[in-house]
Amino acid sequence: MNPTALLELLAEVERGTLSPQAASARLATLPFEDIGHTRIDHHRHLRNGLPEVIYAAGKTPAQTAEIFTRMAATGSSVLATRATPDHAAAVAVQVPTALYHPKARAITLRHAGPSTLNPQPCIAVLCAGTSDIPIAEEAAVTAELFGSRVLRLYDVGVAGLHRLLSVRDQLAEAHAVIVCAGMEGALPSVVGGLVAVPVIAVPTSVGYGASFSGATALLGMLNSCSPNVSVVNIDNGFGAAYTATLIARAAAR
């Protein structure tokens, strides 16, 4: 249930095309639906502006498919992150129109109704190297599903600074920027010095031994000298996109 769907439901009751009893039945799953192994928060879109998202890691394919199907039945867009091909196959049986994005490890279903805002927010998603693309794609797919226009600017790390400078004009279009980097995690600080919008830094677990699976990049980003840089957890492309979406929506109004 999202604000648009709720207003339309109330309008149907007002017009007399839907009985109060039928409307009550549709609202019966608010604020959540208990399906035994999971309590699905259908009310989150009304509270926070974005729907609940399925974290597929640790869930069986059958559990993921059931949650995805219940959420799809409400007419909202649906996103499952950290999904395997087995998760995707189970979802496809129940919701054939769902799409699996292997690089992003995400399953999406875009609601057939209006899915973009006017004006449409723009988010730039950068990554330092090709090895960071899976995390960047998780961020990009999430931001697109939530209605943003996404600029993918990949393999622009500081080891070849000219690559980043070559996309500076595109960066200027963004209402918010997501930067994914491993190794020493220097890229967000450089990007932060080039743009006048918030930068969400995502440390990735890419790098050799002393990178400590992303801990080195995380600490480097937390110590950024660019004051417009904020940091999410290691490999958390989804969390970066969620925050960037809320920022970009406010900025685009």
Task: Based on the model shown, name its key terms.
253 residues; alpha/beta; Rossmann fold; five-stranded parallel sheet; 11 helices; 17% strand
Extract low-pLDDT stretches: none
Dominant shape:
globular
Largest sheet: 5 strands, parallel
Task: Tell me the helix content.
Answer: 25-40%
CATH structural class of the largest domain = Alpha Beta
- Count helical runs: 11
Q: What amount of the residues lies in strands? A: 15-25%
State the CATH architecture of the largest domain: 3-Layer(aba) Sandwich
Number of domains: 2
The tally of strands reads: 11
The run of helices and strands is HHEEHEHEHEEEHEHHEHEHEH
Structural class: alpha/beta
- Strand order, sheet with most strands: 8-7-9-10-11
Descriptive account of the structure:
There is one protein chain. The protein has 253 residues and is of the alpha/beta class. The protein has helices spanning 3-15, 20-26, 44-48, 61-72, 85-94, 133-145, 161-165, 168-171, 187-192, 215-222, 237-252; strands at 33-34, 39-40, 54-55, 78-81, 99-101, 106-109, 122-127, 149-153, 176-181, 199-203, 229-231. It folds into two domains: 3-109, no CATH class; 122-252, 3-Layer(aba) Sandwich (Rossmann fold), CATH 3.40.50. It has eleven helices and eleven strands. The strands form three sheets. The protein has a five-stranded parallel β-sheet. Strands 3-4-6-5 form a four-stranded mixed β-sheet, with helices on both faces. A two-stranded antiparallel sheet has the order 1-2. The longest helix has 16 residues, at 237-252. The model has no long low-confidence stretch (mean pLDDT 87).
